[in-house]
Amino acid sequence: MIPNIYKGDYRLLVIPPLLLIIASIFFIPQIKMGVDFQGGTLISLSLKGAVGADELQAKLQEEGLDAKVRVFETAVGYKAEIEVPQSDDLVRAEELKGEFNEILPKVTQLEVLAYQNQSYSAEYTTKKAELDALGDEMFGLARMQRSQLNITGINDLQKKFSEAYSQVYKLYQESISQPINKHVEYESISVQTVSPVLSTHFIDKALNVVTLSAFLSVILVFLFFRTFVPSLAVLMGAVADITIALGAMGLFGIPLTLQSFAALLMLIGFSLDTDILLTTRMLKRKGDLRENAYDAMKTGLTMSIMAMVAFGTLFVLSVMTHISTYYEISAVALAGLVGDMFATWGINGVVVLYYAEKWRKS
Amino acid sequence: MHFYTDRKFLFLVLFFMLFAVAIALYPVFSGLFLISALIFFGAFSLIWKEPHIKLSGMALLVLLALLNIYLNGLKFGIDFVGGTRIPIILDQEVDQNTMNDLVQTIKKRVSVLGLTEAKVQAVGTTEINVEIPSNDETAIALIEKTLAHQGVYLGVVDGKVAVNGEHIFSSSIRSLSTSELAQQGADWGVGFAVDREGAEQFADAAKGKADYPVYMFLDRPYDAAVFYEETQFKKYLPPDSGQKEALKSLNDALALEGDDMPAYVLTDGQTDLTNITPKTNETQAFISENASSGTKAALASLGFKLVEVPESQIAPEFQRSRSGVLVLNKLECSGMLSAPILSGGVTTGVPNYNYIVTGSVSGASQQERHDEATQKVKSIESILKGGSLPVQISLGSRTSLPASLGSEFLKLSLIGIAFSLIAIAVLIGIRYRNITATLPIVVISLAELCVLLSILGAFTIDLAAMAGIIAAIGVGVDAQIVITDELLKRDEHTTAEKVGLAFGIIKTNAIVAIFSMVPLFFSGLVEVIGFSISTILGALLGYMLTRPAYAALVEKVLATERKGTQKQPEGN
Fold first, then answer.
1. Do the domain assignments include residue A5?
2. Among A116, A126, B245, B264, whose CB has the most other CB atoms within 10 angstroms?
3. Contact yes or no for A287 and B492 at CB 8 A
4. Which of B197, B491, B514 sits opposite A287 (nearest CB)?
5. Which chain A residues are Cβ-neighbours of B400 within 8 angstroms?
């Protein structure tokens, strides 16, 4: 089995995890954002036969579609993933929609007031002009002619404005689906379009969630140990682990999506698990400290291996089926589990052992 | 041990039966019942220290889980069974309450089509996903049409259109303030404004019609008639009224220039309908689905297109106006949903831009009155807005997943579950080289898997939930490893101390795992909620039930084993 790594000058054990962390920090900026957080469209196709990715990408780009194409061979046939970035028109249309909806109630209120009292006319006219300007821009984006729309009043304007927005959305989707339909033969299609508003919403939510999770974890750890150094050591272990997982995402090109984000959150819990195991054993058990640390490591490694078996299975499944949910969750979890071994036994273990030895002497 | 005299055991069995009955009777809530059962049995296996109670708590929960799978089956997302996902894009961001209303309304619309299997979920603040386990082109087209449908509001005074939905400023529709209500002497009220054309139309239609009702229609059908059988119609009559008066008020309400919707009361068994003829060959005849087949056949032979509606939609509601006239208040099948009475102020013929609809409530208690008023305001607002959707919507591109691919995914995922269970069992065996320590771990893992599958399957197992289930198999054994390692250690600590220490670690771990995932669960990020649920449930299940049960089991097994080894000491 594994020898007791805590015999001798165990302080040297921090070197491998530190090197890993430095390497990770280098790779973190290379993390790719998935459509969830970046916006855009991801199309997954089950193909009828093999297609060259580069060839297809070139064909789509000829049609003016700025697409990235990947083709996979899976246990259930060929699959293609086509990623298309957000369109500027759609981003602008959403901004227009926001502004339009904001001033609309004011304009209708002024219109009613202006019917009854002439003195509101001037204000109404300027506000109405603002609304019309927004409308004109939207109609432009939707390739509609205002003169042909025959708009009768504000209610009608609102309706046509909505239709124009839908049209912009539809044009964007058609600009994607038409070239694909022309060049690809597929059995099934899945289209995931994340609008700018939605991606902003996802980012906001994700930030809220991660802040709250981190805050709760820190509070809980301090509540359980009630001493500063061990608590800090536990948290350092978790932070190191997440850093290594993020580095692996950058290195291996695992995109940051809602799924990989969920896996990262789970890693907080998992890496704290081994850290808490180690720290509790060190502080509450009698007997030789280095033996205890070694015993804790044996238990901890068994735990990690079992988790790796499960996530490894999921990873193999994801390679076979190319289900992106499986891939993103399992790849991040596996990277985190490896990172956790280094972080827990290299950093947390060393700090807690050092602290406990000093503490027993005094 | 006599189980049948053990009060604690009988107590658990009693609750097991209650939960079992609940799961059988209310399949819709089976997931919630199972979670309650998990917490309930979990709490008792933490409080009561007897090993056999801990073990039976676990066993009963597994039985409940299996019972639920047997009775109600497991629900899988469209990724596993195939189907279609239609994203609905809202034309503006909405708050949480509006979003909930929207989701409910869309659910209702879809379920009218008989698609109770449809799943409607909010995604962020601007999108709603509708998932149906079907790839049938015509069904999907019908759903898309139903979803995209915007209602048309029509206010009719004495057979003339007074208010047309397109002239109402939708952003001006509001609930009246308390001071406005006090001024009006009303319990509830809704205000709205119309544009110039609308004001003129109203002034014209309402001129000299004080005390007339405004019949408010939502999606009034074109070219239709309503039919009743006499015995049935008599049941709808108010106590102070006769058939003739009621029929007149029905016809008044359904009258509209150029498109009257006549109402008829047929004598039971009457087959001679010579005085009735459909206006066109497209004329719809609304009739109760409970009407006699003879009447239905007679109408059909006249050339009507029969529309059979439930009793509740064709039963008219009446009220009396201040001047004592019997007025139709509601007739759902015609789209007539409310009939406020015109006050004198707006019937002078002078255009008016701001209107209010007010009314009183009849509830006894303060709370009832308040609820009734809120309900009224909500319904009038939604009628005026032309349907129940408060925002404009458009449909995004649909995703269709073939059932064959889904079942392939499901098969592979189930193989994955089985594989990781076996792999973990083998590894545990190699690690401990001790069948008595290994077997309980495997048995308990299986039990956990059962409960987890049953609970998640009562909601929906989507890709993220499935990933969570596979992960839970690996993470779930962790705590059992902590206990086993602790118990197998031969040192100065007593068994009780060891179990205590192991439990301390497990408790801390479970709490941290749960709290780090809870924010995700409440985030509304539907794509990954399944994953957070399975992680949280896995930790909860482990801490509350499987760990205590496992500790009880292993302690017993190891104790008997030690006795055995003491009798025949081996030199090592």
1. no
2. B264
3. yes
4. B491
5. 188-190
pLDDT digits (tens, 9 = 90+) for B365-414: 888 888 888 888 888 887 887 765 767 777 887 888 888 888 989 999 99
| Residues in A touching B535 (Cβ below 8 Å) | 266, 269
> Of A170, A169, A178, A168, whose CA–CA distance to A82 is shortest?
A178
Q: Which residues contact A185 (CB under 8 A, 6 or more apart)?
A: A47, A48, A49
Distance from CA of A253 to the nearest CA of B (A): 20
Task: Return the beta strands (E) in A75-163 as ranges.
Answer: 77-84
B409, B492, B504 member nearest A286 (Cβ): B492
CB B57 within 8 A of CB B15: no
A269 with B170: Cβ contact below 8 A: no
Q: For residue B493, which amino acid is it?
A: H
Distance CA B566, CA B572 (A): 13
Query: Residue A157: which of A111, A113, A91, A95 has the closest Cα?
Result: A111
Cβ–Cβ < 8 Å for B49, B357: no
Give the DSSP letter string of B225-264.
EEEEEHHHHHHHS-TT--HHHHHHHHHHHH--TT----EE
- B505 contacts on A by Cβ (under 8 Å): 276-277, 280-281
Q: Which fold has domain B3-77+402-563?
A: Multidrug efflux transporter AcrB transmembrane fold (1.20.1640)
Q: Residue B474: closest CA among chain A residues belongs to which residue?
A: A307
Which CATH number is A205's domain given? 1.20.1640.10
Q: Is A336 inside a domain boundary?
A: yes
Residue B28 in contact with residue B75, Cβ under 8 Å? no
CA-to-CA dists, residue B399 to A187, B135, B147, B191, B354, angstroms: 12, 10, 16, 41, 45
Regarding whether A26 and A103 lie in a shared domain, the answer is no
Name B316's Cβ contacts closer than 8 Å, sequence gap at least 6: B236, B246, B250, B328, B329, B330, B331
Q: What is the pLDDT along chain B (572 residues), one digit of tens a residue?
A: 555 677 888 888 899 999 999 999 988 889 899 999 998 888 888 888 788 888 888 899 999 999 999 998 898 988 899 888 888 888 778 888 888 888 888 887 777 666 667 888 888 888 899 988 888 888 788 888 777 777 788 899 998 998 888 888 877 888 888 888 888 888 888 988 888 888 889 998 888 888 888 998 888 888 899 999 888 888 888 888 888 889 999 999 999 988 889 998 888 766 667 778 888 888 899 999 888 888 888 888 888 888 888 888 899 988 887 778 888 988 988 888 888 888 877 888 888 888 888 888 877 888 888 888 888 888 888 788 776 576 777 788 788 888 888 898 999 999 999 999 999 999 999 988 888 778 888 888 889 899 999 999 998 899 999 999 998 888 888 888 888 888 887 777 777 788 888 888 888 888 988 998 999 999 888 889 999 999 999 888 888 877 788 878 777 776 766 665 544 443 33
Residues facing residue A43 across a β-bridge = A82, A191
By residue range, what is the domain housing residue A158? Answer: 91-168
> What Rg do the C-alpha atoms of chain A give, in angstroms?
29
DSSP H or E run through B88: strand B83-90
Asked if residue B79 lies in contact with residue B401, where contact means CB atoms within 8 angstroms, the answer is: yes
Token pair in block for residue A250: 């950058």
Identify the CATH number of the domain defined by range B87-149. 3.30.70.3400
Which of A286, A86, A298, A46 is CA-nearest to residue A188?
A46
Q: What is the pTM of this model?
A: 0.80
